[in-house]
Amino acid sequence: MPAIVKISNLSKSYRRDSIRIPVLENINLEVEAGDFLALMGPSGSGKTTLLNMIGGIDKPSAGDVFVGDVPIHRLSDAALATWRARHVGFVFQFYNLMPVLTAFENVELPLLLTRLSKTERRKHVELALSIVGLQDRINHYPRQLSGGQEQRVAIARALVTDPTLILADEPTGDLDKNSAEEVMTLLSQLNSQHGKTIIVVTHDPRAADKARSHRNLDKGELA
Amino acid sequence: MWVLRLILRNTGRHKLRTILTILGLAVATMSFVVIRTLISSWYASAEVIPPNRLVTRNAVSLVFGLPLAYEDKIKRVEGVESVGRGNWFGGLYNNDPKNFFANFAVGPEAYLDMYSEFVLPPEQRADYFNTKNGAVAGRRLADRFGWKIGDIIRLTGQIYPGDWEFVLKGIYKGSQQGVDENSFIFHWEYFDERIKQTFPEMGGEAGWFLVKISNPKQAAGIGAAIDDIFKNSPAQTLTETEKEFSLNFLAMMDSLIAGLTIMSYLIIGVILLVLVNTMAMSARERMSEYAVLKTLGFKTYHISGLIVGESLLLAGVGGVLGVLLTYPVLDGISRALQGFFSGFAMNSLTVILSAVFMVVVGILAAIFPVYRALRLSIVEGLRHVG
Fold it and tell me: b/e string for B244-258 if b means 16 or more Cβ within 10 A?
């Protein structure tokens, strides 16, 4: 399979006052299309930072990040926003749903940036919610859902635009064991049945077991 | 459409905060409108005075009179159509200081004719001129004391002592909003006759002359020509348009009006602070949501639209509620002032001014939250706990 993500010589550091704090050092990574990769490592190892670079929500200090043929490290903020809307679905540890919107409306959000009609949007949203098994909860607000259900809505929001990549940052970090199992199974199904390329950041080995491939980060370096 | 829906839902998120903010804005707007209405009402009677009337008075002070002989000389000035005379009487109804209102002795017939904005039925006008001690009162004044045509009105003179009885022969209405309907006028001839009987040294003088001119554009020239005639006389004159005369009279309260004006603008500042505080709190709590929206691909104008829209919505609802609350408040004030102002009503300029201020306040209150939201990086925003 061709590589959908190509990272070469990527470094990232932050500045705190005059001190340079390195987070990632000389990272080289390729992720094949259709892969389900678990990025593992202890807290502070730079997993989330690396995921943010791949998703175009943070920029490297040095090095290249290609997703498909797009050098996203060179894109402007506005171009990155457009690119993210089309190509990346994000799943966060704390779900990050809009509390004032229903499950349906939360999933519909990314589609509002497309040219789809209202009817077409409805079809897409219902399909996404049925994939995550929440078709009977479309009118529920996040506060009316369990943590596991909220995360499934977040996954539906991530996949509703049929993105190239789904990036999940500690998707089970805030869930109990059973919900975590359900969420990881769901991601695994999206990968195996729908062919989605998924990169999951986790430090939970049980969650990582569902992935096809694994890479470890330690102190900013890939093992 | 979805932006509007999200704005509405966001506004309803902290109901108590939203209600308190709207109430705060409404009370502040109401105070602003009431103060502006007081200010505009103060000047309303002067605003409707036609520009073709001049007032000639003693250059030293209004307290000093002018010889009656001036009247014919003024009539002969080019551009002058007619001349009348008037004296401030200063009588109190039932000798009670609370019953203060403007009362004048005016004459001759031409004086009333010059007041085209006083609408008096012809039969009442004829009755008035046929009755030596007849009087005409404004509608609001008659309403205030419950006077009817034919009533005997007794005024106790404060400048010209004694009880003076008048028969109410006419009640005039203003031809438009703002025209003074609180005045009481009676015949100058009757006034002068009685004065001469009791205080001969005080008679035969006019407090001022009212001059009607044919071309308002020549007001300054005609005024100067009148004053020129009496330049070397013992009683020099000062001629100005009646509007200027009224405004000078009203200027005695300039400090109070200036204070009220400053207060009205301070209230706008208070409105701004209330809204800035609410919007800053709301935006701070939603930083992670703005970060999520950015992550999903929403642009800066979407985020700005949400914040500015919410700010404008709060300002708009508060402003409209404030203006609506103003009506009963103005009604109550009007009753309390017992018709002191001729045109005590909210004018369209005040409403427009309030609307403009609300839009400006809505936008200004959103500037800081928008700036923060746009400056915020996604990574920082996702870490943010509201």
Answer: bbbbeeeeeeeeeee
Share of chain B above pLDDT 70, in %: 96
Indicate whether A40 belongs to any domain. yes
A90 interface with B at CB cutoff 8 Å: yes
The parent domain of residue B122 ranges over 60-235
Kindly list the residues from chain B whose CB atom is less than 8 angstroms away from the CB atom of residue A55.
Answer: 295
Whether B27 has a pLDDT exceeding 60, the answer reads: yes
Looking at the partner chain, which of A78, A100, A113 has a beta carbon nearest the beta carbon of B9?
A100
A137 touches chain B (CB under 8 A): no
Within this chain, do residues B24 and B146 fall inside the same structural domain, yes or no?
A: no
Domains contained in chain A, number = 1
User: Average pLDDT for residues A82-101, to the nearest whole number?
Assistant: 93
Helices within B147-299 (DSSP H only): 188-198, 219-229, 242-250, 254-285, 287-296
pLDDT (tens digit, 9 = 90+) per residue, B84-137?
A: 999 998 899 988 888 888 899 998 777 888 888 889 999 999 999 999 999 999
Tokens 């430090």 — which residue?
A203
Both B297 and B204 in a single domain?
no
Predicted confidence (pLDDT) per residue in B48-95, tens digit: 788 889 999 999 987 888 998 999 999 999 999 999 999 998 899 988
Share the mean pLDDT of chain B.
88
Are B29 and B76 within one domain?
no
Residue of chain B nearest A94, judged by CA positions? B382
In whole angstroms, give the CA distance from residue B40 to residue A58: 58
Q: Which residue of B has its CA nearest to A79?
A: B297
Domain holding A95, by residue range, is: 35-48+75-217
Task: Kindly tell me if the per-residue pLDDT of B386 is higher than 60.
Answer: no
Among residues B315, B280, B218, which one has the least CA distance to residue B24?
Answer: B315
Whether residue A57 and residue B379 make contact (CB cut-off 8 A), yes or no, is yes
CA A1 to chain centre: 21
Within a domain: B185: yes
Phi first, then psi, for residue B93 (nearest 5°) are -75, 130
pLDDT score of A219: 79
The answer on B93 and B42 residing in a single domain is no
Any A CB within 8 A of B374 CB: no
Same domain, B80 and B123: yes
Structurally, chain B folds into a number of domains equal to: 2
